[in-house]
Amino acid sequence: IEVKEQKRHQQKHSGPKAERKKLKKQGGSTEEDERKRNPRAFAVQSAVRMAKMFHRSQDIKTKKHHIPLVDRTPVEPPPVVIVVVGPPKVGKSTLIRCLIKNFTRQKLGDVCGPVTIVSGKKRRLTFMECNNDINTMIDLAKVADLVLMLIDASFGFEMETFEFLNICQVHGSPRIMGVLTHLDSFKNNKALRKTKKNLKHRFWTEVYQGAKLFYLSGMVYDEYQSQEVKNLGRFISVMKFRPLVWQTSHPYVLVDRMEDLTDPERLRTDPKCDRTVSLYGYLRGTYLKNKGQVHVPGVGDFQVADVNFLPDPCPLPDAQKKRALNEKERLLYAPMAGVGGVVYDKDAVYIDLPANHVNQQVCEEVQPTTELVQSLIDAHSTLDAKMAASKVSLFSNSTTLDPLVFDQQKKDCPREEWIWDPSTQRERRAVIFTEKEDFDEDSGSSDDEDTDQEEEEDVDQTHLSTFLRKARAGCEGTEKSTLDGRPPVKKQKLDEQSEEWEMSTELLAFADSEDDLEMSEEEKDKKKEAGREGDSGHSSVEEEDQSDDEAEEDVAAAEASVEGEPGEYKIASSGCGSMNTVCTFLPVDHPQKKKRVIANYVDCSRFNPDTSHNWDLEEMLSSIRDCFVTGKWEEDQDAAALLKEDEKLFGEFEDLETGEVHQGLDAVHDAEDSLVKVDLEEVQKKKRLEKKRRLKERFDAEYDDGDATYFDDLKEEMQKQAEVNRAEFKDEDDETRVQYEGFRPGMYIRLEISSVPCEFVINFDPHYPIIIGGLGSSEGNIGYLQMRLKKHRWYERILKTRDPLILSLGWRRFQTIPLYHIEDHNGRHRLLKYTPQHMHCGASIWGPITPQGTGFLAVQSVAGMKANFRIAATGVILDLDKSVIVMKKLKLIGYPYKIFKNTCFVKVGAYSLV
Ligand SMILES: Nc1nc2c(ncn2[C@@H]2O[C@H](COP(=O)(O)OP(=O)(O)OP(=O)(O)O)[C@@H](O)[C@H]2O)c(=O)[nH]1
How many domains does the chain have? Predict the structure, then answer.
């Protein structure tokens, strides 16, 4: 029988794999080893660079200082809010269903309203799907802890993704993770790989380098592959979340249940009467006082009539000993989707619909009440029908805008192309980037050639990314969320946060490990660097602007540190041992430093033996004595000391010039040998102790006393305060605690609000979120606000003074009439007819008082999607107190104050969920 010879293994001779193997063969000669073998080559070469490095390390250290806040995290925190966002039909509901099934082993039919589950022993998750209505996007971005951003890989980026990213950046930057779906539509592996890479890079540019991107590679029976979902789930369940300033300073509730408590008789006589409703949900953010003022986005400001806490409908398991949750502990609570079992309220019992979930036990309980349930179903469907029929336009009275289209701006924006998708029967808003930005450009190159340059080009040309970086730096949930004009401190805080994020993600086994595999070494290095330096790698415009000044400072700092620096100059040692050779100082390849050489010794190279000198004179001799090795040099280079060392080393020798015989130390101390040994041991021990002491000193200096700054003290104090706070109420029952503390985050509460417009109930649709945002003491007032605003670079039009604009600020969405102005050199505010194209300008509005530094965004219309990019402008609240002065200034330059005062403010809130 003929045996067919099998194809032999072909070893690779080039490419990253071969390089790695070569390195391994050479015994892993990495850069690290070289540093050890040849430390001089890696010593300081440039003082300027050294100074820069020093600055950088100081910067990084400073970044670690946050203004400490008292840790008010409750022992049992509220569920983490995960907002699943993406263009229509991308797979949002499918993903939520899969994740729920992964955690609870239960199948949910319709994903409708917030769905809360117990994901582990210490964590609960609330999933909320975000549709593509701009209002929903704005509201959910404000309460999200984590955003799962779904991207249809078969289609590419759609405008909705970028809009949501922008909204997130303005309102505090929750965690953002990308998820690629529809990967199964790629038949060709190479195309798949390339698409993944392109999308990953674009995502990184928009979010941050190394941002997590998951791949859902296909579907099995209309579900994503369980292993991939499991990985994603695991990632979510151990993820750390950063506290965002707006969220942690305001109590808020993402409502998961709503009941109309209005008297039926009143309803019958007046169907349009104001309603009394009870709203339920987990309290998040900070403590809520009873009878406080709240804002419900899209509805308005309300005084809370009553607040109570209810038993937790989806509690964490009690015992912490067990390793995994048992079936009973894997709870699921989603009243708006019809899952919640029997819910007991203060004064009523609510019954779940058995058809919608699989909990048999609850189904049995519900059996006797089928009739009641049926009536509920009927009522619900009537409401649905009503809902479908009625459409309330939020801003129907607002003036229609006369759009000013500036063609030259178009080149700044990525193009939006409306593409008809026959499979989903809808138009999709594809984002087309400029050619250079297209990562396909490097299609000819291998992964390894995926160079910095490419990345830089990309970053430079992407206006959105520049914007995002700026916004990220400014709006990063810190006290201030400015865009361009933010002080650098806030930026540092951001970087630090990103650093933490990087660190926390590193602890995990990533689901898309393939992601890492496909990364070239260079990319990995880059990623590491980005991780090390936080987001500082994303140099902002300001950083660039400052760089010149910094360079000057660096030089000055470097100059101060050059002189006498060891390692900067070598002493030519050749022949120094000989009495007749002169020593010279050779500067290390740094010509400019020659002039800075200040030799501590007489420069013997200038010694001219021909000049007649009387060398018999002692003073003449001593003038050049120190030029020779026998002279008095520095302590460790003192000739006498060196000779002594030699003696120790070489023992006995005879001085041939003098004939003197020197005895080696060994010989001298032969008799005291044992004593010496003991001494040596002593010395070594001392040395060891000394070394230990120095190490400890260094450690202490870094961690305690040495570096103990005001911040550290403050932090410690806050920590103690937090412990005292916790201990104080630990043993009290909740009823008493609530009296003193208010309702604490993590509690499941019921808020009763009266005088709610009837449209709130009539138009109720669980797919739109209801949020209750607590207001601070002054946040219920309305007044003049001065803000800094910039037209979004992707927005096609510029904005006109006194054209109505819809702002999202704090919890609110409202329409107002802004005045744009710019500060002249004389300090006066000159009124602008239009916003500048690429610059910030001031804007003054009449609107709800919101704390300084709060970010806002503006849209011209909340209905439809006709604009290329819906976000018209972004900015930050500048000042509240001086706003009146601005008004006066505006008046001074001839602006009619009266008109502004009376007509500027259109409406805060609107009585409809649009
Ligand atoms: N082939 C394929 N189909 C998918 C994938 N993800 C989702 N789908 C299908 O796309 C359709 C829409 O999925 P949904 O989960 O309803 O999408 P959605 O984003 O919730 O849609 P809307 O809520 O209507 O915006 C469903 O038929 C899914 O089976 C995927 O990765 N591959």
Answer: 3
CA-proximal residue: ligand 1, atom 6 (nearest) = 91
Statement to judge: residues 789 and 730 lie in one domain:
no
- Contact at 8 Å (CB) between 854 and 246? yes
Note the pTM of the prediction, 2 decimals: 0.60
Clarify whether residues 797 and 853 are in a common domain: yes
Q: Which of 357, 342, 144, 143 is nearest to 239 (CA)?
A: 144
| Residue 784 counted as domain residue | yes
Domain of residue 728, residue span? 710-741
| Amino acid (one-letter) located at 394 | L
Q: CA torsion sign, 128 to 134 to 135 to 139? A: positive
Please, which residues bridge with residue 149 across strands? 85, 178
Same structural domain for residues 829 and 780? Answer: yes
To 10 degrees, what angle do helices 488-506 and 521-532 make?
130
| Average predicted confidence (pLDDT) for the chain | 68
Contact 482, 853 (CB under 8 A): yes
185 inside domain: no
Tokens 């007509």, located at residue: 903
Ligand 1 is surrounded, with C-beta below 6 A, by 86, 88-94, 181-182, 184-185, 216, 219, 222
- 650 token code pair: 């070489």
899-911 pLDDT tens trace: 333 333 333 332 2
Residue reference for tokens 């001085």: 655
DSSP 263: -
CA angle 21, 22, 28 (to 5 degrees): 90
d(CA 413, CA 869): 9
Choice from 90, 92, 94 to test ligand 1 binding pocket (greatest atom count within 8 A of CB) = 94
Measure the CA–CA gap between 759 and 504, rounded to whole angstroms: 45
Q: What is the pLDDT of residues 286-332, one digit of tens each?
A: 889 888 889 888 888 889 999 999 888 888 887 665 666 776 777 88
